[in-house]
Amino acid sequence: MGHAHSHDIKLHRKYGDTVRIGPNAVSIGSATATKAVYGIGAGLRKSDLYPVQYSYSNGKLIPGIFTTTDERLNKDMKRPVSNLYSLSNVLHHEGLVDHTIELFISELKRKFADTDSACNIDDWLHFFAFDVMSEVTFARRIGFIERGTDVDGTIAGIWKRFRYFGIVGQMPWLDKLWDKSPLINALLPAKSSAIVTFTFMQIKKRIEDFKNTTEGPIEKNSGQPIDFFSQFLKAKFNHPEIPDWYLTSWTTSNMLAGSDSTAVYLRSIIYYLLKNPKSYRKVLEELSDHENTGKISKVITWAEAKSLNYLDACIKEAGRLHPVVGQQFERVAPIGGITVNGHFIPEGTVVGINPWVSHRDKTVFGDDAEAWNPDRWLVEKSEQHRMESSMLVYFSSKGFGILAVDLLGYGDTDKPLSASEYKTKKIATEIIEILNLENIRKVHGVAHDFGSLLLSRIANYYPDRLYTTTFLAVPYSLPGQKFDLAKVNALTKQVAGFERNRIKNYDYDDEITAELDPTLSLPTLVIQGSEDKIAVSQLLDFVRSYIPHLRSRPVPTGHWVHLEAKDTVNQYLEEFFSECQASI
């Protein structure tokens, strides 16, 4: 037990990308197969490994969002709380995290630095992880840091449970005969672990407090600490139809899964930095430089940490080499089977990817995939990543939740061979399906270049899913409008002094048949570059009359407006969102 990750690595080194590891089980080693096995619409259900991890309380099984094999139940459980794990919401808990960090630093200084004593940082990182998850869940710590010990054997108890899951999960029928057996539990009632007992006590107390108040759930502007349980309780308050055990499941999952995974990740980062003195020194130098220039506080905030590029690279590299989970997330091949990386896998076959294997895929991470190399994360950034560093990071720091999707055929998206798959209505519908899966009702749509065509169609077919539309460089495109190459060439020659040489003939038949209303009634912002020779600013004149709520903002740039004038574009967007939000 505890070596599944290393065994899987050895098997894939010897036998290649696809390895049969059991009578009805296949392990995939390629990182590029992740979408085929776990992606949206892949259609592979979870295996019987997951119910082994159900909690058992008062004679009843309590599934979780992660552990349930019922897709409908998974969506029902996730829908009321999925937005709570967005970056914008998690940042509301930053004060609680900072409070625990301050105590952690203070205790390490008092007990070890001031006394010149050795510190078992492995244990102390675990203590911190459990206390910080307790703090953000209940606004109250368990007390690991203050006491400097494994409170009530909590960590030992969880490790015992994980050992059980790892072994019995490979033979799930044993779980039904032992841990989940009503007879066994009646004769030998299982004693709840300390952390589960603490969690249940906190739930009971908070529910009683809630029943004794008429003020309703705590709001973000109330001045009181906002913890996850307050928000779980509000979700239950807003959805009285959902069963009470959802509240228990959400909370225990937050405590159990969040604490141990955080501890593993923190240990990995420290381990690899200590093992690689050169990286350790570079991190210290970066921190020192930022401290001397006033860029970071004593307790570094999330907003400040974004500028620590080398530390960020080290964190990513530690997570790559030492993933939190060391075994496969099992799925079951659907009816008719599936083909993954050229190998046909029959229906009913258990298939999965161990991240310890896929994170060492040389086709993705290079020939040095086995080695520590934070610099691999500091390579020249693509246009997409440069956009993320300017626009996406900026707005996430402002509290916006962000969903960034590539057009079909780009990046890591599917690349179907049939041209019919690229019809604008079909792609627009797929974007809406992603919003549904993420439990997002409405968004501010922002697009650039070819993305502007897709945003135009989303606005035509699904206007109720958008608050606003923003078009960068390329303005709104009328539905069913044929591309007039001669007209565009004439306009380009008039403005730029030359004609564009290209072939472009999209299939707009689905739009013409649908007879879409060409009027874009949503509040719309168009930001164009005055020096753009690709999408000349006069293109907006063709559609201006169809956009009654139009705001146009020129910037002195070429085609890549969001990169060439990122601060100005971000300012225009923020002002636009704020003004429109006030009227929503």
From TrEMBL:
Domain of life of the native organism: Eukaryota
Residues annotated as domain AB hydrolase-1: 391-506
Q: Which GO terms describe its molecular function?
A: heme binding; iron ion binding; monooxygenase activity; oxidoreductase activity, acting on paired donors, with incorporation or reduction of molecular oxygen
Q: What is the lineage of its organism?
A: Eukaryota, Fungi, Dikarya, Ascomycota, Pezizomycotina
Task: List GO BP terms, alphabetically.
Answer: secondary metabolite biosynthetic process
Keywords from UniProt, A to Z, are: Iron, Metal-binding, Oxidoreductase
Please name the InterPro entries in this protein's record: AB_hydrolase_1, AB_hydrolase_fold, Cyt_P450, Cyt_P450_sf, Cytochrome_P450_monoxygenase
Organism of this sequence: Talaromyces amestolkiae
Query: What name goes with this protein?
Result: AB hydrolase-1 domain-containing protein
